[in-house]
Design brief:
Elements lengths: L16 E9 L5 E7 L10 E7 L3 E6 L5 E9 L4 E5 L2 E3 L7 H13 L1 E13 L8 E12 L16 E5 H9 L6 H12 L5
Parallel strand pairs: 4-9
Antiparallel strand pairs: 1-2, 2-3, 4-7, 5-6, 5-10, 8-9
């Protein structure tokens, strides 16, 4: 049995993969595969199966104005069959593009805003038991309106109302369970825990 990390920190580690089979892969950025893996030092044991959703990662932007209002949107999410209160977010789907660059683009496209001040709140794994997705969460301040350039909302994004919500109201909605989008909840609580929003 492995020792618990004394420094209380996650660490990179790779277990032997005996085989890997694509279950779904197309031109989009997500894929599903089945890996058969083994415990290190136990290569005599039968490999066991783990499903892996390959995900390029995502950015989430908590955009807060000078009066501590947060730019929010309401977006329909088909897998959950629910419209969630969310904040600007998007996939890191361009090769070698830094997460902060993606965050700037998503803020422009979804909110018609740019920010002069950016704070990295955290990078978290959304569901590491099945997905490789890493979410990069940012606080954006010193906001100003900007043109969306050539971005044209389609599909769910074309049906996405937006609003400026007082941070205190959004925090209350998080704490009493009225909103359940994990990236929003995480960003709101991190900003408060770090003393970046009052």
């Amino acid at each position: 049995m492995a020792d618990f990390p004394a420094d209380l920190a996650d660490r990179s580690e790779q277990w032997p993969v005996a085989s890997s089979t694509d279950l779904h892969r197309d031109e989009w950025v997500l894929a599903l595969r089945a890996d058969r893996i083994q415990r290190p030092g136990h290569l005599d044991e039968e490999p066991f199966k783990r499903l892996v959703v390959e995900h390029p990662g995502a950015v989430i932007v908590l955009a807060v104005d000078e009066t501590d209002r947060v730019f929010c949107l309401a977006q329909y999410r088909h897998p959950a069959q629910r419209r969630f209160i969310e904040i600007p977010a998007g996939l890191c789907d361009a090769e070698d593009e830094e997460p902060l660059t993606v965050a700037r683009r998503e803020l422009r496209e979804e909110a018609s805003l740019e920010a002069m001040q950016w704070t990295h709140l955290a990078s978290t794994y959304s569901s590491p038991g099945i997905s490789s997705e890493v979410m990069h969460l940012y606080l954006a301040r010193d906001l100003s309106p900007v043109d969306r350039a050539d971005f044209e909302p389609t599909h769910e994004e074309a049906e996405m109302p937006t609003a400026w919500v007082p941070y205190a109201d959004l925090l209350a909605a998080v704490l009493d369970g009225r909103v359940g989008d994990a990236p929003l909840v995480t960003a709101v609580l991190l900003a408060r825990a770090k003393g970046l929003v009052s």
